[in-house]
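User: I'll paste a sequence; please echo it back and then give the predicted structure.

Assistant: Echoing your sequence first, then the prediction.
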Amino acid sequence: MRHRIAGRQLGRTSEHRLALRRNLAASLFEHETISTTLEKAKEVRGFAEKLITLAKKGNLHARRQALRLLNDRAIYKEEDGRMVKVGTVIGKLFSDIGPRFLDRPGGYTRIIRLPKHRLGDNGRLVLLQLVEQGKSEPEKTSKKS
């Protein structure tokens, strides 16, 4: 029986699950939107939100905690036909993503279901995105007579 056992196994060993969670979170912070299955997105969402909360603190201790939880891989961009390093995932998390969500108390990610399924196993595909702070919906003005 699975009483009081939290988390999804996702058909992987515990080391593979940890690596998958780290890689998905790093890709989410690098690209700000990723396409994955629904179960993987639900599993990585809480992990990513905890890292964004650490980035909102912005001090050295929080940065060291984030480095412990997430591998600090480099971000490369193609310029003039060659790949150039433009930063790291932790650097982007603490300099760009953390300050963007300072006024938001939580809920930094969203899951948007896609009408597609994967070819191999018919898994439900979703988009896992960071919620945009800069884009706000236009306010509706009601006309009162």
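The chain has one domain: 14-130. The two ends are 63 Å apart (CA to CA).
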